[in-house]
Amino acid sequence: MAHDQLAFQNPVTRFPKIEPPKQDQPEPGLDAELQPKADHGEETYRGTGRLEGRKALITGGDSGIGASVAIAFAREGADVAIAYLPAEEKDAQRIADLITKEGKKAVALPTDISSPENSRKLVDDAVSQLGGLDILVNNAGKQIAQQSIEDITDEQWDETFKTNIYAMFWITKAALKHLKPGSSIINTTSVNAYLPSPTLLDYATTKGAINNFTKGLAQQLASKGIRVNAVAPGPFWTPLQVSDGQPKDELPKFGSQTPIGRAGQPTELAPAYVFLASSESSYVIGETLSVNGGMPTP
Ligand code: NAD
Ligand code: MG
């Protein structure tokens, strides 16, 4: 049995250095097809009752980072709704089963959030099926690498912005009327907000916007008792990277440039989201928590 996240252990060797083979999946990728498999804490994440009785909606909760957050939230005592694209049903059902195994309610909501109508319906469905809402994790994202600005079509630019930042606005606005004091909104940004990869011009621009949106909205909502924060991951091994998120040639060395020397596994992000969702972070507002293997950020 692998160690849980609370065990004393060397972070360098906690997970192996991976050298992923070149691989390609159509967008959106599936965790089920990823080589090597990613670790979402299925065998290891240990809950300590920090989100007892909460109701959470996690976009992109079927795979990668969102999946690890969904597992952790359920083990911390929350009912969890996950949103994902219809093509991701297989990944989503696996995570829904893990939530149910914890004795928690799992709500699966296949929804393309790149339109305002769908985004608003997603919130309505989550609230009605969970019986309320007090944690919103805006985590879904689109990332397609291109060598040059000339290779980014108007359609790609538009879809990346719709998925990453417009949907965050639509979903947050719709969720707000349901959130009571004590609720928490957590947005997934990226180290790309500070260190934009030249191959991710559209994506990195949305991540800068997410940071700014988080810090502005946090000030609006602080006095209402609703906290808004962000998590900025570095390189994490997820299906996003193999569905054109990275140039194929770069996959074998994915994550090796970090000071820790390896890519992150999604489960290593879950505690950051648990911390920001739970009341123990009551004075943490408008913060972007970097979880990136040591890359310096402002
Ligand atoms: P992932 O592919 O597992 O998750 C992304 C999810 O976004 C998909 O599962 C999909 O359900 C959802 N999604 C995409 N387009 C959608 C649409 N139109 N409608 C509804 N859902 C849609 O990959 P991940 O790496 O876990 O990504 C999660 C978040 O983390 C993203 O915002 C990504 O930008 C961010 N991030 C990832 C990394 C990394 O290295 N993996 C680094 C920094 C930030
Ligand atoms: Mg997915």
UniProtKB/TrEMBL annotation:
Bias-annotated ranges (Basic and acidic residues): 16-25, 34-49
Family: Belongs to the short-chain dehydrogenases/reductases (SDR) family.
CDD domains registered for this protein in UniProt: SDR_c1
Highest taxon of source: Bacteria
Keyword Oxidoreductase: yes
Region: Disordered, residue numbers: 1-49
InterPro entries: NAD(P)-bd_dom_sf (IPR036291), Sc_DH/Rdtase_CS (IPR020904), SDR_fam (IPR002347)
PROSITE patterns the record matches: ADH_SHORT
Pfam families (alphabetical): adh_short_C2
Protein name: NAD(P)-dependent dehydrogenase, short-chain alcohol dehydrogenase family
PANTHER family: NADPH-DEPENDENT ALDEHYDE REDUCTASE 1, CHLOROPLASTIC (PTHR48107:SF16), NADPH-DEPENDENT ALDEHYDE REDUCTASE-LIKE PROTEIN, CHLOROPLASTIC-RELATED (PTHR48107)
A GO molecular function held by the record: oxidoreductase activity, acting on CH-OH group of donors
Keywords from the UniProt entry: Oxidoreductase
